[in-house]
User: Which sequence fits this backbone?
């Protein structure tokens, strides 16, 4: 996030797109309600009706996968009416002319045609976003789980820069991250192209710095992404895999493909707290320590580094860092850490954006990085005065439809997401008795008009089939989805939505298109 | 009876709410929201309130498991880590370090992520390290 949670409550306008906030980030959604109470305008853009869309001033219910067209359309209207921020554009950005040349073609009529949103709503949203003193964009996986993920995110950046709604309190472009420490896993260099703190592995000075600190020669080439690794397993390029605390057999699109990939390795080691469909195909499973068994830190969506503290001893006898340390020592690269804090301090000494953070400083409220020195208070707001790259670059982007669209054989759009009581592949939440009771089995949302046509009632069972696979599901007849669209939560191992989803991915971020695929729905008697 | 309250951070979504866990004689029995946390300020969602229910669930893995045909058998840490080291060394020496892929975890701590990517890059010698951020 470029800004912090609390600032959202003070915004004059919030533009929330692809975020089922009350379900996926309940505590952030409290800021959205507070924003409205303070007199702000809440605009929710979502192809589904959600709790937060029903509480919004304006719900823009566009078609699945039409985000770029919608945002280009808003920018077209903003520019035509002169609502853009000329001073901001001149002082802080480049590429404005190219952007305008592209959005010129996104007339309200054309955008209404593509997105299914009427031109009046488009004009109203454009005006409120552009003319409010402070407008904050928040987005979630509804923006990123598309073949156009990067285009979608860049379009939101375009919109914010066009109106100068960034670099000030209560503005910005704010992704709500999907998992507790996805921010931290990226920050720590759990990526094939960067060391901790986004220091590129291809820059010789960076490599030299880490080689000196770690006392080893390091590889200069960019590594493989998760999907490329899975492809590599099948091609025979990858012979060994180590997976810590992830369940890709269930969470990856086209999960059968992932299972085959892992089965075709010569050695696959999984480290996890519970048996999962992923540990089931491993050669070796090591028992991990959960968050109550370790000291450490998590970094939340607003880049706030916060303490995790040990409550009980590791149930299997070792913390995860001790496992890695011992394995490393056996592989002739001895590590001698005595505590998580020692690991943190080494990381901070090599990572400028963490240089001022230490455990004693994190005690009460945590610190938002960048925090370059021990006297620095942390940085809740990014891009104040200038962007990281200097001038903000507009990207002229054309709309591209999703990779798969309904046809005669697979006539429904399908989208996926989460429900209130569960979390991702639900290996944890289905083991919480009170949560399991809330939602014990898969239920797929179907619009009442479709249900009537197909003679399906609430609670009936249907077979849902895509080009990748097929499964059985209960039906929930609800207007949460539009006619012609079904919604399936991804939590259920015995009926995993990702048997059906499309593995087509964004060419840059390699994010699969979980949010759009085509399916057939048949009643089962 | 040993009773302790420990302040920590919720492991579910990226709100990062402050939790206080109550442990009695090594068993975690209750969760309370932290009032001093700048994130949740004394509130929690349904998942957070019930977080203590999964951590000591009977299904937790407690011993290393080694594949034995179609099933697993329990083994010691020494045997498990020895086996892992032998296999990773063999693959690295036979096919090169880039024949190994490592997935770190968006569920684990910063320290665990740091040490695992260091293991990948320095111990094994490959940048084939990623996690499910893109999923």
Assistant:
């Amino acid at each position: 996030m470029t800004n912090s949670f609390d600032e959202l409550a003070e915004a004059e306008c919030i533009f929330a797109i692809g975020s089922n906030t009350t379900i996926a980030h309940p505590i952030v959604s409290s800021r959205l309600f507070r924003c409205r109470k303070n007199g702000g305008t809440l605009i929710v853009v979502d192809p589904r009706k959600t709790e937060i869309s029903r509480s919004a001033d304006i719900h823009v219910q566009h078609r699945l996968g039409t985000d770029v067209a919608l945002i280009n359309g808003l920018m077209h209207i903003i520019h035509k009416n002169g609502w853009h921020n000329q001073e901001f554009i001149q002082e802080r950005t480049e590429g404005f002319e190219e952007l305008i040349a592209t959005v010129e073609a996104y007339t309200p009529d054309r955008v209404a045609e593509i997105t299914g949103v009427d031109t009046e709503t488009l004009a109203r949203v454009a005006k409120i976003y552009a003319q409010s003193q402070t407008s904050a964009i928040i987005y979630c996986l509804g923006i990123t789980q598309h073949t156009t993920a990067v285009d979608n995110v860049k379009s939101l950046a375009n919109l914010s820069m066009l109106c100068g709604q960034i670099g000030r309190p209560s503005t910005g472009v704010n992704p709500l991250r999907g998992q507790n420490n996805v921010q931290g896993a990226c920050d720590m260099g759990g990526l094939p192209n960067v060391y901790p703190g986004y220091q590129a592995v291809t820059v010789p000075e960076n490599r030299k710095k880490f080689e000196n600190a770690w006392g080893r020669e390091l590889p200069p080439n960019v590594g493989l992404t998760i999907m490329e690794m899975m492809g590599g397993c099948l091609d025979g390029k990858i012979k060994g895999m180590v997976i810590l605390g992830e369940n890709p057999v269930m969470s990856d699109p086209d999960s059968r493909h992932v299972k085959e990939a892992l089965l075709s390795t010569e050695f696959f080691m999984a480290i996890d707290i519970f048996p999962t469909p992923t540990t089931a195909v491993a050669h070796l499973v090591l028992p991990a320590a959960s968050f109550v068994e370790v000291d450490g830190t998590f970094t939340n969506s607003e880049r706030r580094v916060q303490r995790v503290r040990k409550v009980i001893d590791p149930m299997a006898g070792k913390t995860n860092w001790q496992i890695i340390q011992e394995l490393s020592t056996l592989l002739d690269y001895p590590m001698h850490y005595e505590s998580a804090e020692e690991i943190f301090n080494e990381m901070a000494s090599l990572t400028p954006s963490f240089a001022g953070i230490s455990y004693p400083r994190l005690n009460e409220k945590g610190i938002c990085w960048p925090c370059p020195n021990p006297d620095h208070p942390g940085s809740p707001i990014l891009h104040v005065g200038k962007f990281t790259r200097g001038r903000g670059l507009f990207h002229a982007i054309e709309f591209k439809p999703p990779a798969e669209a309904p046809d005669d054989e697979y006539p429904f759009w399908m989208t996926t997401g989460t429900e209130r009581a569960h979390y991702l592949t639900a290996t944890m939440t289905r083991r919480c008795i009170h949560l399991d009771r809330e939602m014990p089995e898969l239920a797929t949302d179907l619009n009442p008009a479709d249900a009537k046509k197909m003679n399906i009632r609430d609670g009936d069972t249907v077979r849902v089939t895509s080009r990748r696979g097929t499964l059985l599901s209960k039906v929930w007849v609800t207007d949460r989805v539009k006619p012609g669209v079904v919604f399936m939560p991804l939590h259920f191992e015995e009926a995993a939505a990702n048997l059906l989803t499309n593995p087509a991915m964004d060419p840059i971020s390699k994010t699969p298109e979980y949010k759009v695929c085509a399916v057939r729905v048949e009643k089962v008697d | 009876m040993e009773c302790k309250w420990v302040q920590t951070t919720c492991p579910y979504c990226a709100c990062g709410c402050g939790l206080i866990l109550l442990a009695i004689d090594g068993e975690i029995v209750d969760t309370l929201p932290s009032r001093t946390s700048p994130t949740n300020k004394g509130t929690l969602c349904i998942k957070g309130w019930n977080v203590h229910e999964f951590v000591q669930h009977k299904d937790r893995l407690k011993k290393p498991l080694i594949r034995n045909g179609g099933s697993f058998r329990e083994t010691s840490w020494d045997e498990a880590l020895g086996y892992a080291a032998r296999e990773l060394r063999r693959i690295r020496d036979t096919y090169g370090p880039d024949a190994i892929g490592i997935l770190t975890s968006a569920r684990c701590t910063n320290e665990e992520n740091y040490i695992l990517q260091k293991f990948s890059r320095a111990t094994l010698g490959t940048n084939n390290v990623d996690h499910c951020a893109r999923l």
Chain B has a mean pLDDT of 94. The radius of gyration of chain B is 19 Å. Residues 98-135 of chain B form one domain. The first helix of chain B runs from residue 46 to 49.
